[in-house]
């Protein structure tokens, strides 16, 4: 380990040697110029004289040396380091288990792992990303719900004031739910805000979402949701899908990545609409949703679509298929 002597940088050490050996300046005067002791000046002169030609040419003689002792009789051998690292690689155990297997102190194991840079296990390799996209608009619509807290006035994150009166603490304004549907191919999205996520609300939203996509020339073939009760045990919703010739699909349990398009859309919805502006109340936030949704569908560029808005992909694909 090196101890950096910041009070005398390397270029000042070179100056001290140049003054004394090159210009013939007395050591006491050179020490006074740099506000160091005479012994310090003599130390760097000796370092320069004892250095090789290569060290003088590169300036290595003026650099800090490691403070590690020249001899370390009790230091663990390289063979022991190799045994510890092999056990770590083979088993993935921590220092205490490795110490019990090898019969050495766990502190020794910890030091060996630290010296070899193996104190922390490397992250487990991730599965390769399998990107999938349906070939045409309407082939699959992904549907999900995201909850947003309602508020009657801006919170401390906006105002900076954490003080609340008793009436404000007792006030319960509840939540509102953003029901969203997005086309897997074009990323065209439709969102509504409701005070609940009951079966009747889901049916009404689904009807209007189907009409929204139909207005853009998209005929829906499949509708994908998670396994929420309002989707899987809703007979009226099943009848609605049957009447439009739509196949209802559900994702595997505990795998929201299978609904990845709408999950990613909800992150964008929260970041750019929910938190992107400072609203006076949740009602003001709700009033801004149609404007943001129009911007998302018609103006906002998507990197996955070649930096084009979703509406351009809908028009281009429908024109090609017609």
Topology of helices and strands:
Blueprint: H1 10-22, H2 27-34, H3 38-50, H4 53-58, H5 78-91, H6 95-102, H7 106-115, E1 141-149, H8 156-159, H9 166-170, E2 175-183, E3 189-194, H10 199-215, E4 222-225, H11 229-232, H12 235-243, E5 247-250, H13 260-274, H14 282-298, H15 310-321
Parallel strand pairs: 1-4, 4-5
Antiparallel strand pairs: 1-2, 2-3
Largest sheet: 5 strands, mixed
The CATH C-level name of the largest domain is Alpha Beta
Gyration radius, rounded:
35 Å
Mind telling me the CATH superfamily name of the largest domain? Answer: Ribonuclease H-like superfamily/Ribonuclease H
Using the alpha-carbon principal axes, give the shape: elongated
- Placed side by side, the strands forming the largest sheet appear as 3-2-1-4-5
Protein name: IS481 family transposase
GO molecular function, one term: nucleic acid binding
Domain Integrase catalytic: 131-317
Region (Disordered): 55-82, 298-322
Textual characterization of the structure:
This protein has 322 residues and is α/β, with parallel strands linked by helices. The chain folds into three domains: 10-62; 78-115, no CATH class; 141-321, 2-Layer Sandwich (Nucleotidyltransferase, domain 5). 48% of the residues lie in helices and 10% in strands. The chain has a five-stranded mixed sheet, sandwiched between helices. α6 (95-102) packs across α7. Pfam families: HTH_32, rve_3. InterPro entries: Homeodomain-like_sf (IPR009057), Integrase_cat-core (IPR001584), IS481-like_transpos (IPR047656), RNaseH-like_sf (IPR012337), RNaseH_sf (IPR036397). Residues 65-75 have a biased composition (Polar residues). Residues 131-317 form the Integrase catalytic domain.
């Amino acid at each position: 380990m090196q101890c950096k002597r910041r009070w005398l940088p390397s270029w000042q050490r070179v100056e001290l040697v140049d003054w004394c050996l090159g210009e013939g300046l007395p050591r006491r005067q050179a020490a006074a110029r740099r506000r160091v002791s005479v012994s310090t000046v003599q130390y760097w002169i000796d370092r320069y004289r004892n250095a090789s030609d290569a060290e003088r040419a590169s300036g290595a003689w003026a650099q800090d040396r490691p403070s590690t002792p020249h001899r370390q009789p009790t230091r663990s051998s390289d063979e022991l380091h190799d045994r510890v690292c092999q056990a770590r690689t083979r088993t993935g155990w921590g220092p205490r288990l490795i110490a019990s297997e090898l019969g050495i102190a766990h502190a020794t194991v910890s030091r060996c792992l630290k010296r070899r840079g193996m104190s922390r296990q490397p992250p487990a390799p991730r599965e390769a990303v399998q990107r999938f996209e349906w070939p045409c608009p309407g082939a699959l619509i992904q549907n999900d719900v995201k909850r947003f807290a309602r508020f009657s006035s801006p919170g401390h994150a906006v105002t900076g004031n954490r003080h609340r009166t008793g009436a404000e603490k007792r006030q319960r304004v509840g939540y509102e739910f953003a029901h969203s549907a997005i086309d897997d191919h074009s990323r065209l999205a439709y969102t509504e805000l409701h005070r609940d996520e009951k079966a009747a609300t889901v049916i009404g939203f689904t009807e209007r979402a189907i009409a929204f996509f139909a207005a853009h020339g998209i005929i829906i073939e499949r509708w994908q949701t998670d396994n929420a009760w309002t989707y899987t045990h809703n007979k009226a919703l099943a009848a609605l899908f049957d009447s439009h010739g739509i196949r209802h699909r559900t994702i595997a349990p505990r795998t929201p990545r299978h609904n990845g398009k709408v999950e990613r859309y909800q992150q964008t919805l929260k970041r750019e609409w929910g938190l992107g502006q400072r609203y006076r109340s949740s009602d003001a936030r709700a009033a801004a949703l149609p404007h943001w949704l129009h911007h998302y569908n018609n103006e906002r560029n998507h990197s996955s679509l070649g930096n084009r808005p979703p509406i351009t992909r809908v028009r281009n694909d429908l024109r090609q298929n017609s």
